[in-house]
Design goal:
Helix content: 55-70%
Structural class: mainly alpha
Number of helices: 17
Shape: extended
Radius of gyration: 31 Å
Length: about 400
């Protein structure tokens, strides 16, 4: 049955260009559900260009003023791109999608109006997935972070009054991307207002009094942003104050307490991992996340401690794995040979030339059986010593 599945998926691609809107939407829905249900590595590797171009066509149509594609179809197209990158194992293919999508997704944040919230949310989430899994280095991730930061900027004429759901999603995506950047690679000049921005955002939402669900999303996103900045210890890169740690000690304590209350019993290795798993859950859903934790090679690489034990919930998969060590005893028995040197030859009454050649071939030649056996034994002894040295470094 599994062998027939790619044929079903190929039929969805054929229906992408159907003239009937309902047929196209059904094909997209089916493709999205298939990519969520379980990883389709082989299928996406062979069709990622086709899927990417077809989906991006729906996004660029808005810029051209076309009404051919419905909002639902555009949303599903953007979700399909996110799932495409999640399923792509080879970095070259994922980076190709990154290059194709970057400018289109950036334009989409400008072209879609504030009332088209569903599309903007999908674009933001897609930005996160494409940047996190499709980029080749921290500079490319930071490039997308800057695009989102500009989108968040209150001085941006297009975004003076962002909806709370959009604001929360934008911060979530920015934090998700931050979790994938090595702290030593973060720029020293781009983020100096980071802590003040998120702190002021929290104060404003707190002063509102009545916090609805959307406002709660903003509060949680801003809390995670500050928490991650403190957690990875990059305060000096996100603050314009001359002093670093001591100025934020009380804020840091308050933020960590809020984060602990929001964990709901989750047991992950660190805050970065919590943020990453929760973001993936937005795209895949609870069941899809579990399936990809078990079977997706990208997730095995990203969340190795969480995906060791298949079939278990992600929250239960984090354990302190005891190192396993296999010991092999190999015994080698070496036959005793009488010395065949010049002195031993003198003890013999007579040694013919033929016998001398035989003795030389058996004992002194580099290709002799004795020397081959000796070389084999020494190589095994060296290998054993090197293995012991490596294991000592790992487990000490």
């Amino acid at each position: 049955m599994a062998k027939q599945l790619p044929q079903w998926l190929h039929s969805y691609l054929i229906e992408f260009d159907n003239k009937r809107r309902t047929t196209r939407e059904n094909a997209l829905n089916s493709l999205v559900n298939a990519l969520i249900s379980s990883p389709k590595h082989e299928f996406v590797e062979g069709n990622h260009i086709t899927i990417c171009h077809n989906c991006l066509t729906r996004l660029t149509s808005k810029k051209k003023g076309s009404n051919k594609f419905s909002k639902s179809e555009i949303c599903q197209s953007v979700r399909a791109i996110s799932l495409l990158v999640i399923n792509l194992v080879h970095q070259d293919a994922a980076h190709q999608v990154f290059d194709e999508c970057l400018s289109v997704l950036s334009d989409a944040l400008v072209n879609f109006k504030s009332h088209e919230i569903d599309v903007i949310l999908e674009v933001l989430w897609c930005f996160g997935i494409v940047g996190f899994l499709g980029s080749c280095n921290s500079m490319e991730i930071e490039k997308i972070m800057l695009l989102i930061w500009d989108f968040l900027n209150p001085n941006n004429n297009n975004n003076n009054n962002l909806e709370s759901s959009v604001l929360g999603a934008a911060i979530d995506t920015w934090v998700f991307l931050l979790s994938g950047v090595q702290r030593q690679n973060l720029s020293m000049k781009f983020w100096k207002k980071g802590i003040s921005y998120f702190s002021e955002l929290l104060m404003k939402r707190k002063d509102c009094g009545n916090i609805d669900n959307d406002n709660e999303d903003v509060v949680l996103a801003a809390t995670n942003a500050l928490g991650l900045i403190f957690h990875i210890d990059v305060i000096h890169k996100f603050s314009d104050k001359s002093k670093e740690g001591e100025d934020y000690s009380s804020l840091k304590e308050e933020i960590f307490e809020k984060i602990k209350r929001n964990l709901d019993g989750m047991k992950f290795c660190n805050l970065s991992q919590i943020i990453q798993v929760k973001f993936m859950k937005k795209i895949l859903g609870k069941e899809g996340l579990r399936n990809h934790m078990d079977n997706n090679e990208n997730f095995h690489r990203l969340f190795e401690p969480l995906s060791n034990n298949k079939g278990k919930k992600a929250a239960d998969n984090v354990v302190d794995d005891a190192p396993e060590r296999e010991e092999v005893v190999h015994k080698y028995f070496q036959h005793k040979f009488k010395s065949l040197n010049a002195e031993s030859d003198e003890l013999l009454t007579y040694v013919s030339e033929k016998e001398k050649k035989v003795k030389h071939r058996l004992g002194k030649s580099a290709n002799s059986s004795l020397n081959k056996a000796r070389t084999l034994l020494l190589n095994k002894q060296r290998k054993a010593v090197n293995q012991f040295s490596i294991e000592s470094e790992l487990y000490d």
